[in-house]
Amino acid sequence: MLTTEQIKAIRKIQIRTSHLVSDLFGGQYQSVFKGRGMEFAEVRQYLPGDDVRSIDWNVTARTGEPHVKRFSEERELTVMLVVDVSGSTHFGSTAQLKQELAAEIAALLAFSAIANNDKVGLVIFTDRVELSLPPRKGNRHVLRVVREILNHRPQGHGTDIPLALDHLNKVTRRRCVVFLLSDFLQADIKGSLRIARKRHDLIGVVLEDPREIELAPAGLVALHDAEAGAEILVDTSDRGVREAFRRHQVARRDARDGMLRSVDVDAIRVRTDQPYTRELMRFFRARQ
């Protein structure tokens, strides 16, 4: 049973993202994700004006009357949302947690998909696959997707992106548009990303928080690793400590971005302290 606060949170995301879909992203989404091409529809008798290149010569020879093949665009796509809910996503130093940011972006992508008659599926993971919802259509299904991301209580604390992508490859039979929402703090994932990229249209949505790069001068602070459980006491009033932390984190971020580029995975970097619409629009325009 959902609490009143949870219902309000889901409703807030629904209202906000539905507005963005209708005003900003509906047309952008459709123009970027065009479907798999053309599929056979029917054979009918030739009519004046039909393209002679579409004549079906086998049927024409069999019936003695000219017939043409007709095709229609196979527009329907499957969009898979693969969402990291590990311990590090339960962090946010501004108005929202990274997990809440992921839920809102996932909702926007999901509502854009169903507005174009596409299916949406969900995989929630930590160091294990926590939940898997098969692709479906409809507002009710999308609201369940949002509810699961917002309110899921994970059993694991760590992150295993290769495991999640391997599960995705096992449960999907055809090519999908895959949005992988994570802070991508895990090392040694390049091979798994490359395999998934060959099979699917894989897009990384990178979740960031400003305090992961810059430490505020707040005196002695206990920094806690939400996934490994380790804790260290840091004197953030020391300018040298803050600068060393910043250099280390910037290098780590640059290495992550370089790794994503090396396997040809488009990345959308979003932060808990900035509007994500700008980065999404930049991605759609670049894709166009």
- The second-level CATH architecture of the largest domain is 3-Layer(aba) Sandwich
Q: What helical percentage do the residues reach?
A: 40-55%
Largest sheet: 6 strands, mixed
**CATH topology (fold) name of the largest domain:** Rossmann fold
Rg calculated over all Cα atoms:
23 Å
Total number of helices: 8
- How many runs of DSSP E, i.e. beta strands? 10
Category by helix and strand content: alpha/beta
The arrangement of helices and strands along the chain is HEHEEHEEHHEHEEEHEH
- Beta content comes to 15-25%
The CATH C-level name of the largest domain is Alpha Beta
The order of strands across the largest sheet is 5-4-3-6-7-10
